[in-house]
Design brief:
Elements (H helix, E strand, L loop, with lengths): L2 H7 L1 H6 L6 H25 L28 H7 L3 H12 L10 H8 L7 H20 L7 H21 L2
Helix pairs in contact: 3-5, 4-5, 4-8, 5-8
């Protein structure tokens, strides 16, 4: 299946232009949302642990090595939207991620690129951005907004990862 076919799968959403978007706006939205979702999932993989079997005292940050043991059930809300197709899934996941503390636009590297900052000329500004990024990472880790618990965030993120992986595997 090609990326164009994934778009066709949700063609009703595209043609309805519910938000007054043009086709070009849709392409920009899809690109930005994919980047946001990839950032969020990547952060989860490198900064979290399998909360079903570990706790703070015995955690091992190894989610980047492989998928954790399969979930007994998919997160209900992710499944509700993602079973409907790629764009509906992407729109839902993107909206949910925007409610969290840690977001791609606040990452040090993105801020550096946006402001055209370079080492060593902008060292102080980069350092301030990096400290704020680390603060947001810790805030997100301690307070799993918009989820009810760290375990729900884990289940949600793993389910979102499953779907994003599956959609990627469908592209030929």
């Amino acid at each position: 299946m090609s990326l164009d076919e994934l778009y066709i799968q949700d063609d009703d959403e595209l043609s309805a232009n519910l938000y007054g978007e043009t086709d070009e706006d849709n392409e920009d939205w899809v690109r930005e949302s994919i980047l946001d979702v990839a950032y969020y999932i990547r952060s989860h993989k490198f900064n979290n642990y399998d909360r079903r079997f570990m706790n703070e005292s015995n955690k091992i940050l190894n989610l980047f090595e492989s998928f954790p043991k399969a979930l007994k059930a998919l997160h209900w809300e992710v499944n509700k939207y993602c079973v409907k197709g790629f764009l509906k899934c992407l729109k839902y996941i993107g909206k949910k991620i925007k409610e969290s503390d840690l977001q791609r636009r606040q990452d040090t590297k993105n801020i550096m690129n946006e402001n055209k900052w370079r080492f060593p000329e902008n060292f102080n500004a980069i350092n301030v951005a990096d400290v704020e990024c680390e603060r947001l990472l810790q805030a997100d880790y301690k307070n799993p907004v918009p989820f009810q618990s760290p375990l729900e965030r884990f289940d949600w993120t793993i389910t979102a990862s499953y779907y994003m992986c599956w959609f990627t595997m469908q592209v030929s």
